[in-house]
Amino acid sequence: MTASPRSTGNPVTIAAVSVVVALTVLALKFIAYRLTGSIALYSDALESIINVVAAGAALLALWVSQRPADKTHPYGHTKAEYLSAVVEGVLIVLAAFSILRVAIPDLLNPKPVEATYLGMGVNLGASVLNFLWASFLLRFGRTHRSPALVADGKHVMSDVVTSVGVLIGVVAAKLTGWAELDPLLAILVALNILWSGWHLLSDSVGGLMDKGVDESTESRIRHVMSTHASGALEMHDLRTRHSGKVTFVEFHLVVPGQMTVAQAHAICDRLEEAVTNELEGAHVTIHVEPEENAKHHGVLVI
Description:
By secondary structure, the protein is an alpha+beta fold.
């Protein structure tokens, strides 16, 4: 028997706002580039184009993931969020390579930086907006267990790191006259983005490959099972996996052979409620079997 997860929040609306924010930041950064002529600020603006595409991908994935289970997708559509996160990771890596493609030739043939403080101020304003939105996305995404929004938040935060590094380089190049600083800082920021993209891809692929919960969460589940299964004898073959904001929990419940179906059902109801209270977004499936099938290497009920 199964227990369904509880619904939380409205991530689709947040993803839609994220697209608007990404378009606003893109416009501001291109204005900053036109005012300064800095190759580093141009690279920063290029990454913002990818931010818009990534935000759109997150919106589409979240819209799909909200669809209820159907005949062809009996477990729902929540894994669409992981696909979005993979896309975000790939786009972060592509953004880094696009910056390197522009910055390396400029490092070999540096040009004097004639950046205006107005242009740098516009870029700084865009970065502040990005930082505030990225912080909100990460907090909201983790609270509502949304891999797509967390990935979008990490992507936007990597853009903030890019912008800060670029601004430091532009200011330093302008004050010192050392033109190499402009592309050099862009290259260093690109390498940092590559690292961020790799971690995001690793986490997303883990979700697509049905990675189970961490050891700490599994210990919590086992503790809840052992303290709310009075009347049963044993629980074994515990399996877990993540699918977007839903965590699937499956296990076998061993009961005395003479126990009635109604009594076993009552124990299952109690266990389902306890697990879902402990682990928000859990979807619990329990297979009941008689004591003759007990394996004696699961969670023994005292």
